[in-house]
Amino acid sequence: MKIATWNVNSMRVRLPHVRGWLAEQRPDVLGLQEIKMPTEDFPQADIEEAGYRSVAYGQRTYNGVALLSREEPADVGVGLPNFPDEQRRVIAATYGEVRIINLYVPNGQSVDSEKFVYKLAWLEALREYLAEQLEQYPQLAVMGDFNIAPDDRDVHDPDAWRGKVLCSDAEREHLQSLLSLGLTDVFRLFEQPEGTFSWWDYRAAAFRRKMGLRIDLILVSSKLASSCSASSVDIEPRKLERPSDHAPVFAVFE
DNA sequence: ATGGCGCGCGCAGCGCGA
């Protein structure tokens, strides 16, 4: 089974990239974030032409998530059950025995903003939800745009970013508390090239200059971790015309 | 190097992202 996550920064604009990537990589499940359109506008027919089912949880202008899959999804859930929120950031579904939760974690803007307070509260509610889901689903994958770089290795210039949003101790501690539930960041199960990132600012030629962060993650339960055979970032779509600022990240399970 | 870029909205220029 191959699963992947990709913040597409507008599904309308990125539909050709998504279709191309599905055709080339053939993931079993692809989680999308920042589709930036209402659920009813999601291009389900175009995705079906590519051989994929889809479930979306979208809204106008901001946020929005979707799950594309070769198999029919079961038990679709949206949102965090313990955190009423107008912002649409979570969609979950079960494929066979595997539960997949697709996330768009709040950005947080800056560590002294109200949005940062919201981000930390959101992460606390996420931890409670994941604790409950782990009890229910031994084979659990939680993937998406976490908007947290787990470690200095995941930051092109750790000193410049130290303490800043996406890299602060408070955010990293929240991520650690998710991992403490029994989840593993599968990317780090394997030897990786130094300076592997999943997001690069559109400004300042950040991609060309390899100035990025790894903030798109795939966390899995121990049962899935033991069967994981690969995990990588595919930076090729970031080189296309009008790219998303994020690259897809995938993991393979035997 | 925070400013630049790119998105939606909507038709100018702003809010937002990370």
Helix and strand topology:
Layout: E1 2-7, H1 11-25, E2 29-33, H2 44-49, E3 53-57, E4 65-69, E5 74-78, E6 90-95, E7 98-104, H3 114-136, E8 140-145, H4 158-161, H5 169-179, E9 183-185, E10 199-200, E11 212-213, E12 216-221, H6 222-225, E13 228-233, E14 249-253
Parallel strand pairs: 1-2, 7-8
Antiparallel strand pairs: 1-14, 2-4, 3-4, 5-6, 6-7, 8-12, 9-12, 10-11, 13-14
This protein binds one DNA strand of 18 nucleotides through loops.
Classification by helices and strands: alpha+beta
Strand fraction: 25-35%
Distance between the termini: 7 Å
Number of distinct beta strands: 14
Please describe the biggest sheet, giving its number of strands, its sense, and whether it closes into a barrel.
Answer: 6 strands, mixed
SSE run: EHEHEEEEEHEHHEEEEHEE
Based on the model shown, name its key terms.
6 helices, alpha+beta, about 250 residues, DNA-binding
Question: Can you put this structure into words, describing what you see?
Answer:
The chain is an alpha+beta fold. It contains six helices and 14 strands. A six-stranded mixed beta sheet has the order 3-4-2-1-14-13. The chain is globular and about 45 Å long. The chain binds one DNA strand of 18 nucleotides through residues 9-10, 12-13, 34, 36-37, 60-62, 107-109, 145, 147, 164-166, 199, 201-206, 213, 215, 242, 244-245.
